[in-house]
Amino acid sequence: MAHWEIRIPTVTADQRSGVQVFTYPAETYPLQLLAKRQARRDVDSADAIRHRRGAEARPEAIKAIWHETYEF
Fold this sequence. Notes:
By secondary structure, the protein is α+β, with helices and mostly antiparallel strands. The protein is 24% helix and 35% strand.
């Protein structure tokens, strides 16, 4: 199944960088814009904050990658 991989850079209190990744199915989010909007909402959720252990997200540097999945 095709999907969007949304990557949002993060930085910890001691300035270590990282990335938080969200994936969204293309059938639900057919446009990049829709997947990015959802990621911007999801990055502020309690689960996302806990997952990145409180690191600060940098959604202004969001990156979207399209993945095509082939079934043989």
